[in-house]
Amino acid sequence: MCRNFQWKLSSRSLRLGERTLIMGVVNVTPDSFSDGGQFLDPARAIEHALKLLEEGADILDVGGESTRPGRTLQVSAEEEMRRILPVIDGIREKAPAAVISVDTYKSQTAEAALAAGAEIINDVSGFTWDEKMVEFLANSDCGCVLMHTRGRPEQWPTLPSLAADEVLPLVLNGLRELSERAVSFGIAPERCILDPGFGFGKRLDENFPLLARLSELHQLGFPILSGTSRKTFVAKSSGLKASDHDNVRLAGSIAAMTLSIWSGAHVVRVHDVKESLAAARVASALVQADRTKDSSPRREPSQP
Known about the structure:
With 304 residues, this protein is an alpha/beta fold. It has a single domain, classed as Dihydropteroate synthase-like (TIM Barrel). It has helices at 42-55, 77-94, 107-116, 133-138, 164-184, 207-212, 232-237, 245-262, 273-292, and strands at 5-8, 13-16, 21-27, 59-63, 100-103, 120-123, 143-147, 192-195, 225-226, 267-270.
């Protein structure tokens, strides 16, 4: 059963568990797998972010470096900051109340982003690719997303395959180790949310047993973030033609997101906020109905 949490951020707390929150993606990159180059210009990225807020996004996740499969990580912190800081500034100016997350594994970028007004650091490496990150975050007060990643993007094509029954234990143990490490450094548990990292070091078919058993991650005692939007495993399994790109990504993404919500995801990270929010409302209503079915007073059978 999905628990309720208060996710502590820099200036506020977010209530998690009453409904699933929508995290809208703002990629300020030339080469992201789904929307690379569309919002590289800061003005366009800001406009896109404001549109996502209008459509119902609870959180904006701004990223300046692609981590698509097979890519060698090479964007410097300076370039990453050049891409994202004007976007954060623009969002803050136009929508001061917006909750801003920054997708980065670099402590230098994280520090600059928090100073600019971001309140969440979303690190795909779980604070392991930059040895300074976990210590820096221990001395901050922002929210933290710890993602499970198996290897680095350039290694993913050659990683050994996993059997279906190996995937969940691998992710479960990995997230347990990441969260214990973060807490041991002084990051308060109420600041943390865990992400199983769909597609991050998991081959296409390896993501399905992870999604099917997502609810088992609740045993770790942290809220869960699920990011299945536009992932390759979703598109390739849909059966739609590659030429029908938008429908391939959207239809499959909504199906995977709906299962994530049914499994108790507290936050879902999506590209298509308007459509995802509509589906999430239906899924959340089903979850609430399932929660209350056993608490309803039992009616005595009517007498003939």
